[in-house]
Amino acid sequence: MLVLLSLLLLCSSAFLSPALAVKATFFDGFLPNGNFEERPKATDLNKTTIKGKYSLPKWEISGLVEYISGGPQPGGMFFAVAHGVHAVRLGNEASISQSIPVKPGFLYSLTFGASRTCAQDEVLRVSVPPLSGDLPLQTLYSSNGGDTYAWGFRATSKVAKVIFHNPGIQEDPACGPLLDAVAIKELYPPMPTKFNMVKNGDFEEGPHLFNDSINGILLPPKQQDLTSPLPGWIIESLKAVKYIDAKHFNVHSGRAAVELVAGRESAIAQILRTVPGKIYNVTFTVGDARNGCHGSMMVEAFAGKETLKVPYKSHGKGGFKVASFKFTAVAPRTRLTFYSSFYHTRIDDFGSLCGPILDQIMVLPIRY
Ligand SMILES: *[C@@H]1O[C@H](CO)[C@@H](O)[C@H](O)[C@H]1NC(C)=O
Ligand SMILES: *[C@@H]1O[C@H](CO)[C@@H](O)[C@H](O)[C@H]1NC(C)=O
Ligand SMILES: *[C@@H]1O[C@H](CO)[C@@H](O)[C@H](O)[C@H]1NC(C)=O
Fold it and tell me: What phi and psi values does residue 197 have, to the nearest 5 degrees?
């Protein structure tokens, strides 16, 4: 009887949406001591330098790692720490790492606050072996130093080793990127539906958003769709795109959208399964995030052999328009790509890159 009952339970649970059943347990939050507010013991510090491999609580360190409090520093520098009060600075060839339990085969994204401190060409290498990515920090996307990035990986075993490393060799050994908070989110892999062939076309599934992330989250370039922190989407080219949420920005639909902040230097793309010869209709919205980003904007969209240029006049006060075009598939795979034709900065802050926002991307076959 008991066996039968549990069988029945198993059967009935199969009718529940597996997505919902799994989603309820998806983790989303800081890594242990992910905001570095748990301090090393006073005896484990020499001024700001952390002594000993295991002296930074919950982390393992190697090389010259400094424990920093935000604000003016001895020697005249100023470090902005956007999330909390404390941060770590990774000197030449230094790294910090932590091993966390994960579910093999699942997609994750790390969200972290990072900024350069002295040299233009500082790079932060983030890796979860076997995957690794280099983030060039020379482009400051917001002028207050509080840039936040997301990077995605797929777990290959039950434990993931998250490593942040400074591969640089600067003249000043202490020079190097500042890391001020690290969070992780398990991502739900979106699928195409009969209502939309585009996966995650509304950008509702994306990286962890710090509750104080007023600047949005930068999605660095060269991320493939299989491991992207924006599930389903490839982030192409040389510079980042920005993931913005409805809490801090004007988002026309749902909880999130993408801001194309780096002109033609950054694009997002998705590969669609198509039937050669069939005609498809692409629709999407173009607007502004009500963040003072103003001017004559243009979003270019590409699919098959078709291109659509969508002009949008932004007053920086929030608004949007709907655009659509059709294309004939020439292959069983069609790449759908979007970028901004121009560069923009905010009316109140010429140091902050911004651009048009893209949302609600939909592709459906046209039936005659
Ligand atoms: C602290 O660092 C300085 C400079 O690197 C070094 O000369 C000194 O010996 C260190 N002190 C201790 C207690 O480790
Ligand atoms: C943001 O989250 C932190 C850590 O969970 C919390 O201490 C803080 O109060 C939150 N801030 C806001 C504005 O919700
Ligand atoms: C494409 O879809 C949009 C939105 O549903 C619609 O307004 C437009 O007429 C469609 N275009 C074609 C060619 O079917």
Answer: -80, -10
CA atoms of 315 and 287, how far apart (whole Å): 10
Q: How far apart are CA 161 and CA 98, in angstroms?
A: 6
Give the chain's length.
Answer: 368
* Closest CA to ligand 2's atom 14: 211
List, in order of start, the domains of the chain with CATH numbers. Answer: 23-188 (2.60.120.260), 189-368 (2.60.120.260)
Tokens of 117: 């401190």
H or E element: which one contains 328?
strand 319-328
Residue nearest to atom 5 of ligand 3 (CA): 283
Residue 293 CA from chain centroid, whole number? 21
- How many angstroms separate the Cα of 24 from the Cα of each of 27, 48, 188, 367? 9, 41, 11, 37
CA distance 89 to 68: 7
Helical spans, DSSP H, in the chain: 2-15, 18-23
Of the listed ligands, the closest to the CA of 30 is 2
For ligand 3, which residues put their CB under 6 angstroms from it? 281, 283, 324, 326, 366
Pocket test for ligand 3, best of 324, 327, 366, 368 (most atoms within 8 A of CB): 324
Contact 364, 263 (CB under 8 A): no
Asked if 62 and 31 count as a contact pair (C-beta separation under 8 A), the reply is no
Q: For each of the chain's 368 residues, which pLDDT tens digit applies?
A: 333 333 333 333 333 344 444 444 678 999 999 999 999 999 999 999 999 999 999 999 999 999 999 888 877 777 878 788 899 999 999 999 999 999 999 999 999 999 888 867 888 999 999 999 988 777 666 666 678 999 999 999 999 999 999 998 878 877 889 999 999 999 988 899 999 999 999 999 999 988 877 789 999 988 888 899 999 999 987 888 999 999 888 888 889 999 999 888 889 999 999 999 999 999 999 999 998 898 999 999 999 999 999 999 999 889 999 999 999 999 999 999 999 998 888 877 777 889 999 999 999 999 86
11 φ, ψ (degrees, to nearest 5)? -65, -45
Instruction: Name, in order, each residue with C-beta under 8 angstroms of 117's C-beta and a sequence gap of 6 or more.
Output: 77, 79, 89, 175, 176, 177, 178
